[in-house]
Amino acid sequence: MNLSRGNIFKPYYFLIPALFLITFSGIIPMGMVVYYSLHDSFPGGDFIWVGFHWFKQLFSSSDFTFSLMRSLLFSFLALMIQIPLGIFIAKKIPKAGMLANIIIVLIVIPLLIPKIVIGHIWSFLTIPQIGLLDYFANLIRIPLELNTNISQVWFVILLMDTWHWTSLVVLLCYAGLKAIPIQYYHAANIDGASPFFVFLKIELPKLKKVLLIAVLLRFMDSFIIYTETYVLTRGGPYLSTTFLSHDLVQTATIQFDLGEGGAMAVIYSLIVILTSYIFYKVISIKE
Amino acid sequence: MTENKKTFPVTPIIYTFFILIPIYWMATISFKSRQELGSGLSFFPKEPTLNNYGLIFSDSAWYLGYLNATFYVLINVALCLLIALPAAYAFSRYRFYGKEFFFFGFLTFRMMAPAIMLIPMVEIFSYLGLIDTYFAVALAHTYFNLPIAIWILEGFISGIPKDMDNQAKIDGYTYFQYFKKILIPQIAPGIGVTAFFCFLFSWTEVLLANALTVIDAKPINAIMTRVASVFSSNIPILSAAGLLTIIPGIIFVIFLRKYLVKGFSLGRID
Question: Which CATH entry fits the domain spanning B60-229+247-264: 1.10.3720.10, 2.40.50.100, 3.30.565.10, 3.40.50.300?
Answer without folding.
Answer: 1.10.3720.10
